[in-house]
């Protein structure tokens, strides 16, 4: 290659970045560090229901993960225990569909629940290829305990909304889910 310098495409040297960045106005460093959720502008995402639901889901999920940390169970374990309890004898595939859960994640969760003595798999009497799932008494007890903790993580919503608003929020969320589920 001799003395010929090879220029990489799409790569601007530091001097180039300094020139580009000098034209961009940015808040003072102290201001940037003090930005809160209240100050954050959502831009076009402010018009998207999915984005707003995901933000709430993220906050609630993090609270649940923190509350469940002492149990050492995977995220989704309570959901599986609740679904198994409410639908004894259903298969993993059926429960994944009901709960909108990833089938491969369910296998891992059910394996762990079974190893801990919280759930059992049984063969279906009508279809030997199908596993039926059941919670053990220990699983039922733990599910109820974890459910109480999960409910406590939602307390800020109960405290900040009236009972009518809270009920309406549940109704609207379910209506929205049903509408999207049947939409082409």
Any chance you could write out the topology, listing elements then pairs?
Elements: H1 14-21, H2 29-33, H3 49-68, H4 77-86, H5 92-99, H6 103-115, E1 119-123, E2 131-135, H7 137-153, H8 155-160, H9 163-182
Antiparallel strand pairs: 1-2
Helix pairs in contact: 3-7, 4-7, 5-6
CATH topology of the domain at 47-153: Arc Repressor Mutant, subunit A
* Largest sheet: number of strands, sense, barrel closure: 2 strands, antiparallel
CATH class of the domain at 47-153: Mainly Alpha
Low-confidence stretches: 1-13
Overall structural class, as computed from helix and strand content, comes to mainly alpha
Order of helices and strands: HHHHHHEEHHH
CATH-defined architecture of the domain at 47-153: Orthogonal Bundle
- Strand order of the biggest β-sheet: 1-2
Fraction of residues in β-strands: 5-15%
Question: Could you say which overall geometry the principal axes of the C-alpha atoms support?
Answer: globular
Mean pLDDT: 83
Rg, rounded, reads 25 Å
Determine the number of helices (DSSP H or I, runs of at least 4 residues).
9
| Percent of residues in helices | 55-70%
Q: Let me know the CATH homologous superfamily of the domain at 47-153.
A: Winged helix-like DNA-binding domain superfamily/Winged helix DNA-binding domain
Total strand segments: 2
